[in-house]
Design goal:
Its EC number is 5.4.99.5. Helices cover 86% and strands 0% of the residues. It has three helices and no strands. The protein binds the ligand C=C(O[C@@H]1C=C(C(=O)O)C=C[C@H]1O)C(=O)O.
Length: 98
């Protein structure tokens, strides 16, 4: 192995360590978010409120688009990711109501 390939292997390992830590943050963050949305789902079911709230979602999308742009993250990706999560949350809320 040349010095250059050894250096590249060390850099790759460093990046992967960071990626693993960030993946853990994502999992814990999602778990925390779902704890709150589950509580919201129970509240909605108890008070006969609809599972989805399109006005709230529109505000979240607008906010996330700005945040993503500021963070140098593709805003379309951020929107798709949020929509995917919200779709799952609404499924949970529908289950609370049935
Ligand atoms: C969590 C809620 O329910 C739904 C899920 C949302 C979310 O996951 O952020 C946002 C709006 C609602 O469609 C809510 O109304 O706040």
């Amino acid at each position: 192995m040349t010095d250059q390939t050894a250096r590249a292997a060390a850099l790759l390992a460093e990046h992967r360590e960071s990626i693993d830590r960030l993946d853990a943050i994502i999992v814990f963050t999602l778990a925390e978010r779902f704890k709150h949305t589950q509580a919201v789902g129970k509240l909605k079911a108890a008070h006969d409120l609809p599972p989805s709230d399109p006005a709230r979602e529109a505000a979240q999308i607008a906010r996330l688009t700005d945040l993503a742009t500021e963070a140098d993250l593709d805003p379309e990706f951020a929107k798709t990711f949020l929509a995917f999560i919200i779709q799952e949350v609404i499924k949970h809320h529908e289950q609370h109501q049935s």
